[in-house]
Amino acid sequence: MKKFLMLWSGELISSIGSGMTAFALSVYVYQTTGSATYVSLITLLAYLPTILLSPLGGVLADRYDRRLLLIIGDLFSGLGLAYVLWNIQAGSDSMLPIFIGVTFNAVFVALLEPSFKATITELLTEEEYAKANGMVQIAGNAKFLISPALAGILLAVADIRLILLLDIGTFLITVTTVAIVRKSVGKVVKVEKQSIGREMRLGFAEINKNKGIRMLILLMSFVCFFVGILQTLTSPMVLAVSDAETVGFMESLCAVGMLLGSVFIGILGIKKNYSTVLCVAGIFSGIFIALAGVNKSIFVTGAGIFLFFSALPFINTSADVLVRKNIPNEVQGRVWGIISLLSQIGTVFAYALSGVLADYVFEPLLSDNGVLADSIGALIGTGTGRGIGFMLILSGICIIPAAFAIGRSKSIRSLQ
């Protein structure tokens, strides 16, 4: 556990630095261009390469020394930020260098996640998996809870260049901690290398032969889809009845909810009955997401959002442990890469569809003169934002039976 804690501390520091950079870049790009489209493009370039390249990162994690890949990934992702910093320092107002640097950074982050997840399995016992996953989620949530506040303070006294320098410094700290762990554990030499395509196919085959793992991935993709809907539509739904400050508060509630759930797991862990925890947490998450859309009250919406994100770490941890216990360590890198790709497809679909469905289907249905105004509208209200609320209610209604069915299935229960 000591080696994991050292690795985790570097990950926590790096996560805070990355969150600060993401916040500062969005502010810088919008202030420079006045374009929300450019801000969205930056977000996409930072997100999409990591998803698409995760299977390749997983193959490399099974082929080579995983700790060495972590070091390489951190160093080269830091070079992407250094390129952005160099262009800003040179006085360039062009967005192209920022696009290039952010994309370069994201490509090498794809190396990190499968290697990091597979390394956790190597360093810990099965009894420590749940606590470790809770701690990993704490590190991931730090970029949403801690980073924006720190970045806001620093931007008040300096500019984006300081934040980029600090983030580059966090990569160096992470590299140092990984190097120390690598030295104490020893180098891992991978053997029997095959073509990358064949190794990817073997990863898919490892997943395909286990029905329980396939169902877990389906659930994870399902959850990611509805999380994406909530993330995308919370702002317009809240802005219909309140202001931007309240939207910011709602975003903080998401991070706080995730943090509290992760801290609980990180301290107490989940000892057994992972399929039961998965089922119960899934059912409650469905109830909570429906609660977020049930009426116009900011307090009810906030409570639903907070409770929904508090339940997510229990779903994530249960699924994570069940995968670790049932996939051989020598192929876990490529399996985690494939799982990341398949599960995050749900998020991509949510980002692509939720706005269109809200604007052209559900909002018109729940307008003051809409088709559902006298039926569903009599229960949840009509007007701007109520169509989105109805979407959240339907999301919850979909999650509850799916969580019950998957959590109670024999194939999932057999994974324990």
Explained architecture:
The protein has 416 residues and is mainly α. 84% of the residues lie in helices and 0% in strands. It has helices spanning 2-33, 36-63, 66-89, 96-123, 129-145, 147-157, 160-185, 196-208, 211-239, 244-268, 274-292, 298-326, 332-365, 376-380, 386-408, 410-414. Helix 1 (2-33) packs parallel to helix 5 (129-145). The two termini are 22 Å apart.
Characteristics:
single chain; 416 residues
The string of secondary-structure elements, in order, is HHHHHHHHHHHHHHHH
Overall shape: it is: globular
Q: Report how far apart the termini are.
A: 22 Å
**Average predicted local confidence, pLDDT:** 79
Outline the fold blueprint.
Layout: H1 2-33, H2 36-63, H3 66-89, H4 96-123, H5 129-145, H6 147-157, H7 160-185, H8 196-208, H9 211-239, H10 244-268, H11 274-292, H12 298-326, H13 332-365, H14 376-380, H15 386-408, H16 410-414
Helix pairs in contact: 1-2, 1-5, 1-6, 1-7, 2-4, 2-8, 2-13, 3-4, 3-7, 4-13, 5-10, 5-12, 8-13, 9-10, 9-12, 9-13, 9-15, 10-12, 11-12, 11-15, 13-15
What can be said about this structure in brief?
With 416 residues, the chain is mostly helical. The chain is built from 16 helices and no strands. The longest helix has 34 residues, at 332-365.
